[in-house]
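Pasting as-is:
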Amino acid sequence: MDIFEIFSEYSYFGIFLVLIGVNTAPILMPPSWIVLTSFYLLDPSLNVLFLAMVGASGATLGRFFLKKISGLFRKFVGEEQKTNLDIIGDYLNRKKYGYVIASFLFGATPLPSNMLFIAYGLMRAKSISIYAGFWFGRTISYVIMIYFGDAVLRPFFEIFEDRLTGILLIDGAGIGAIILFASINWTVLITQKKIKFVKPKIWRI
Protein backbone atom coordinates (compact mmCIF):
# COMPACT_ATOMS: atom_id res chain seq x y z
CA MET A 1 0.00 0.00 0.00
CA ASP A 2 2.95 2.35 0.62
CA ILE A 3 4.06 1.84 -2.99
CA PHE A 4 0.55 2.59 -4.26
CA GLU A 5 0.35 5.74 -2.16
CA ILE A 6 3.78 6.97 -3.32
CA PHE A 7 3.05 6.55 -7.03
CA SER A 8 -0.55 7.71 -6.75
CA GLU A 9 0.82 11.13 -5.82
CA TYR A 10 1.93 11.44 -9.45
CA SER A 11 -1.57 10.57 -10.65
CA TYR A 12 -1.81 8.88 -14.05
CA PHE A 13 1.91 9.27 -14.81
CA GLY A 14 2.85 7.40 -11.62
CA ILE A 15 0.40 4.62 -12.49
CA PHE A 16 1.86 4.48 -16.00
CA LEU A 17 5.37 3.96 -14.57
CA VAL A 18 4.21 1.19 -12.23
CA LEU A 19 2.48 -0.67 -15.07
CA ILE A 20 5.66 -0.47 -17.17
CA GLY A 21 7.69 -2.02 -14.36
CA VAL A 22 5.16 -4.77 -13.60
CA ASN A 23 4.91 -5.78 -17.25
CA THR A 24 8.64 -5.65 -17.98
CA ALA A 25 9.41 -8.24 -15.30
CA PRO A 26 9.06 -11.82 -16.65
CA ILE A 27 7.91 -13.45 -13.40
CA LEU A 28 7.02 -12.81 -9.75
CA MET A 29 4.77 -9.84 -10.47
CA PRO A 30 1.07 -9.60 -9.52
CA PRO A 31 -1.45 -9.51 -12.39
CA SER A 32 -1.51 -5.94 -13.68
CA TRP A 33 -5.31 -5.71 -13.38
CA ILE A 34 -4.90 -6.11 -9.62
CA VAL A 35 -2.38 -3.25 -9.56
CA LEU A 36 -4.59 -0.98 -11.65
CA THR A 37 -7.74 -1.81 -9.71
CA SER A 38 -5.92 -1.14 -6.44
CA PHE A 39 -5.00 2.34 -7.64
CA TYR A 40 -8.64 3.03 -8.47
CA LEU A 41 -9.88 1.78 -5.10
CA LEU A 42 -7.31 4.05 -3.47
CA ASP A 43 -8.55 7.04 -5.51
CA PRO A 44 -12.09 6.55 -6.94
CA SER A 45 -11.98 10.03 -8.49
CA LEU A 46 -9.82 8.65 -11.32
CA ASN A 47 -11.58 8.43 -14.69
CA VAL A 48 -12.13 4.72 -15.39
CA LEU A 49 -11.72 4.82 -19.17
CA PHE A 50 -8.66 7.08 -19.10
CA LEU A 51 -7.14 5.01 -16.29
CA ALA A 52 -7.65 1.84 -18.35
CA MET A 53 -6.03 3.47 -21.40
CA VAL A 54 -3.07 4.71 -19.33
CA GLY A 55 -2.73 1.24 -17.79
CA ALA A 56 -2.93 -0.45 -21.17
CA SER A 57 -0.26 1.91 -22.55
CA GLY A 58 2.08 1.17 -19.64
CA ALA A 59 1.41 -2.57 -19.90
CA THR A 60 2.06 -2.57 -23.66
CA LEU A 61 5.32 -0.63 -23.31
CA GLY A 62 6.39 -2.98 -20.52
CA ARG A 63 5.65 -6.03 -22.69
CA PHE A 64 7.66 -4.39 -25.51
CA PHE A 65 10.68 -4.23 -23.19
CA LEU A 66 10.06 -7.83 -22.04
CA LYS A 67 9.97 -9.02 -25.66
CA LYS A 68 13.23 -7.21 -26.42
CA ILE A 69 14.93 -8.71 -23.35
CA SER A 70 13.62 -12.21 -24.17
CA GLY A 71 15.04 -11.97 -27.69
CA LEU A 72 18.54 -11.74 -26.18
CA PHE A 73 18.15 -15.28 -24.79
CA ARG A 74 17.35 -16.84 -28.18
CA LYS A 75 20.98 -17.97 -28.53
CA PHE A 76 20.49 -20.28 -25.55
CA VAL A 77 17.48 -22.06 -27.08
CA GLY A 78 18.04 -25.53 -28.57
CA GLU A 79 18.27 -25.64 -32.37
CA GLU A 80 15.20 -27.86 -32.73
CA GLN A 81 13.05 -25.53 -30.63
CA LYS A 82 14.52 -22.49 -32.41
CA THR A 83 13.52 -23.88 -35.81
CA ASN A 84 10.14 -24.83 -34.41
CA LEU A 85 9.50 -21.31 -33.10
CA ASP A 86 10.54 -19.83 -36.46
CA ILE A 87 7.95 -21.99 -38.20
CA ILE A 88 5.05 -20.72 -36.10
CA GLY A 89 6.45 -17.19 -36.46
CA ASP A 90 6.46 -17.47 -40.24
CA TYR A 91 2.95 -18.91 -40.16
CA LEU A 92 1.61 -15.99 -38.12
CA ASN A 93 3.40 -13.53 -40.42
CA ARG A 94 1.54 -15.00 -43.39
CA LYS A 95 -1.81 -14.63 -41.64
CA LYS A 96 -3.15 -11.10 -42.00
CA TYR A 97 -4.57 -10.95 -38.47
CA GLY A 98 -2.52 -13.73 -36.84
CA TYR A 99 -0.54 -11.65 -34.37
CA VAL A 100 -3.26 -9.11 -33.62
CA ILE A 101 -5.80 -11.83 -32.75
CA ALA A 102 -3.36 -13.75 -30.55
CA SER A 103 -2.27 -10.61 -28.69
CA PHE A 104 -5.85 -9.37 -28.31
CA LEU A 105 -6.96 -12.67 -26.77
CA PHE A 106 -4.13 -12.61 -24.24
CA GLY A 107 -4.75 -8.94 -23.51
CA ALA A 108 -8.51 -9.26 -23.03
CA THR A 109 -8.45 -12.44 -20.93
CA PRO A 110 -6.70 -13.57 -17.71
CA LEU A 111 -4.18 -15.61 -19.74
CA PRO A 112 -0.56 -14.96 -18.60
CA SER A 113 0.68 -12.56 -21.29
CA ASN A 114 4.24 -12.48 -19.93
CA MET A 115 4.91 -15.89 -21.43
CA LEU A 116 3.32 -14.85 -24.73
CA PHE A 117 5.77 -11.96 -25.11
CA ILE A 118 8.69 -14.14 -24.05
CA ALA A 119 7.67 -16.48 -26.88
CA TYR A 120 7.39 -13.49 -29.24
CA GLY A 121 10.92 -12.48 -28.28
CA LEU A 122 12.29 -15.96 -28.90
CA MET A 123 10.43 -16.04 -32.24
CA ARG A 124 11.87 -12.60 -33.19
CA ALA A 125 8.33 -11.42 -34.00
CA LYS A 126 8.35 -7.87 -35.39
CA SER A 127 4.76 -7.09 -36.37
CA ILE A 128 3.34 -3.85 -34.93
CA SER A 129 -0.02 -5.62 -34.69
CA ILE A 130 1.36 -7.49 -31.68
CA TYR A 131 1.13 -4.30 -29.63
CA ALA A 132 -2.06 -2.95 -31.20
CA GLY A 133 -4.00 -6.13 -30.41
CA PHE A 134 -2.61 -6.30 -26.88
CA TRP A 135 -3.38 -2.62 -26.16
CA PHE A 136 -7.01 -2.89 -27.22
CA GLY A 137 -7.44 -6.17 -25.35
CA ARG A 138 -5.91 -4.73 -22.19
CA THR A 139 -8.01 -1.56 -22.36
CA ILE A 140 -11.23 -3.58 -22.53
CA SER A 141 -10.23 -5.97 -19.74
CA TYR A 142 -9.01 -3.13 -17.50
CA VAL A 143 -12.29 -1.20 -17.85
CA ILE A 144 -14.23 -4.30 -16.81
CA MET A 145 -11.89 -5.13 -13.93
CA ILE A 146 -11.87 -1.57 -12.60
CA TYR A 147 -15.67 -1.30 -12.65
CA PHE A 148 -16.03 -4.60 -10.78
CA GLY A 149 -12.75 -4.24 -8.90
CA ASP A 150 -13.86 -4.77 -5.33
CA ALA A 151 -16.11 -7.69 -6.24
CA VAL A 152 -13.29 -9.36 -8.20
CA LEU A 153 -10.38 -8.65 -5.85
CA ARG A 154 -12.03 -9.93 -2.68
CA PRO A 155 -12.65 -13.53 -3.85
CA PHE A 156 -9.22 -13.58 -5.55
CA PHE A 157 -7.47 -12.80 -2.28
CA GLU A 158 -9.70 -15.25 -0.41
CA ILE A 159 -8.62 -18.03 -2.76
CA PHE A 160 -4.97 -17.04 -2.46
CA GLU A 161 -4.70 -15.85 1.12
CA ASP A 162 -0.95 -15.95 0.66
CA ARG A 163 -0.65 -13.62 -2.33
CA LEU A 164 2.84 -14.85 -3.21
CA THR A 165 1.40 -18.35 -3.59
CA GLY A 166 -1.14 -17.03 -6.09
CA ILE A 167 1.56 -15.23 -8.08
CA LEU A 168 3.78 -18.34 -8.12
CA LEU A 169 0.91 -20.53 -9.30
CA ILE A 170 0.08 -18.12 -12.13
CA ASP A 171 3.75 -17.91 -13.18
CA GLY A 172 4.09 -21.69 -12.94
CA ALA A 173 1.13 -22.12 -15.27
CA GLY A 174 2.65 -19.61 -17.69
CA ILE A 175 6.04 -21.35 -17.72
CA GLY A 176 4.31 -24.68 -18.33
CA ALA A 177 2.37 -23.11 -21.20
CA ILE A 178 5.49 -21.77 -22.96
CA ILE A 179 7.28 -25.13 -22.61
CA LEU A 180 4.25 -26.85 -24.13
CA PHE A 181 4.10 -24.20 -26.86
CA ALA A 182 7.77 -24.70 -27.76
CA SER A 183 7.43 -28.49 -27.70
CA ILE A 184 4.64 -28.71 -30.29
CA ASN A 185 5.82 -29.72 -33.75
CA TRP A 186 4.29 -26.80 -35.58
CA THR A 187 5.28 -28.09 -39.02
CA VAL A 188 3.18 -31.22 -38.54
CA LEU A 189 0.32 -29.29 -36.93
CA ILE A 190 0.17 -26.64 -39.68
CA THR A 191 0.62 -28.97 -42.67
CA GLN A 192 -1.03 -32.19 -41.46
CA LYS A 193 -3.40 -30.87 -38.78
CA LYS A 194 -1.97 -33.38 -36.30
CA ILE A 195 -0.53 -32.72 -32.87
CA LYS A 196 2.98 -34.05 -32.43
CA PHE A 197 5.62 -33.06 -29.93
CA VAL A 198 9.35 -32.57 -30.25
CA LYS A 199 11.78 -33.36 -27.48
CA PRO A 200 11.10 -30.79 -24.71
CA LYS A 201 14.65 -29.54 -24.48
CA ILE A 202 14.35 -25.76 -24.31
CA TRP A 203 17.75 -24.50 -23.29
CA ARG A 204 21.04 -25.28 -24.99
CA ILE A 205 23.82 -25.26 -22.39
